[in-house]
Amino acid sequence: MKTAQLDYVIRVHENPADPALAPWNRLLAQQSQPTPFMRLEYFRALHESGSAAARSGWRPQFLSVWHGDEMVAACPAYLKSHSYGEYVFDWAWADAYQRHGLAYYPKLLVAVPFTPVPGSRLLATDEAARQVLMQGLEALARQQTLSSAHLLFGTAADHQAAQAQGWMERQGVQFHWQNRCPEPYAGFEDFLASLQREKRKKIQQERRRVREAGIWFEARQGAQIVEQDWDFFYRCYQLTYRAHHSTPYLSRDFFARVADTMAEHWLLFIACRADGSRVAASLIALDPAQGAAYGRYWGAVEPISCLHFEACYYQPLQWCIEQGYRRFEGGAQGEHKMARGLLPVPTRSSHWLAHPGFKEAVADFLAQEGQAMRGYVDELESHQPFKAPG
């Protein structure tokens, strides 16, 4: 593929295991938000396990930009035959296309499959290379006569590059916990003391119910998580989907692969009864270099009051405080997280539509939705769970 900048070459890779992508992780390390989910090992595990591959509706079309022998930009891209596993919902757009006799799928998606964690998506050595990458994405969409292209959960630099190409912006919100700065919390009790009285009492009551049920937790990190632990976690993970009459996106083979190639990025909390029997598990992803932790998956083999809050919020927050981590991201959606000290954080996505009429209609919709979202975030901000300063 050629661009207006004749000294750049753009390549399309149909497999993240393509040897030509070897410089990927080195390029990722140069970005402002290099989350572990953007590592090449993560994408290879998704692809090779069949979790995100052509047969599951995720056909890789990774792009790389070359200046001579140097890879100066790259991004994960997929041809999608559905909108599952994205967390930025465009089902209404697809329905509108269908009602007008037009094909919405396949579409081009720049994202990490099943992972709504904000971070760098357009890996680039500089802004010029990032713009060439954006041009390549649009050129690929046009060449394949796709309905649209989408960039999800990128950084400010990513979405600025998209807007420079005329893409439309969409706003969302997540809930993240931040360690106190410049003086971090001394412990979980110190964190509780910073909350308003009613929020603090609610957390204390929820934790007490779990203790009264005779539940204690074991935390295992990296190589400490053995195969039997992963097996138990996956059983819990499956049960969560089964309870919602759904099927897990990720296979057991996927977790085996990331356990082998990315062991240092995983933390597993296992809930046990007094007799040592296991009842629940919560998997957390870690970015030690950034001091960030990410709540990912959980499940339980039996219902226990407040166990979800303990496994997915209080145990990870306590661990983050003890280890000096700066941030814990609780995943997509969930206003209930505010009462537990996670505050609203805006997220962004960018969208390109080929059809002029639909592009205009979606632009109007996004303008109205964006105004409503800003009002929603302002409303959330007015219900801070923390004590007022002083």
TrEMBL record:
InterPro entries documented for this protein: Acyl_CoA_acyltransferase (IPR016181), FemAB-like (IPR007434)
Query: Entry's Pfam families?
Result: FemAB_like
Q: Which SUPFAM superfamilies match?
A: Acyl-CoA N-acyltransferases (Nat) (SSF55729)
Q: Which domain of life is it from?
A: Bacteria
Keyword Mitochondrion recorded: no
MF annotations from Gene Ontology? acyltransferase activity
What keyword terms does UniProt attach to this protein?
Acyltransferase, Transferase
Tell me the Gene3D superfamilies matching this sequence. 3.40.630.30
Q: What is this protein called?
A: Putative N-acyltransferase
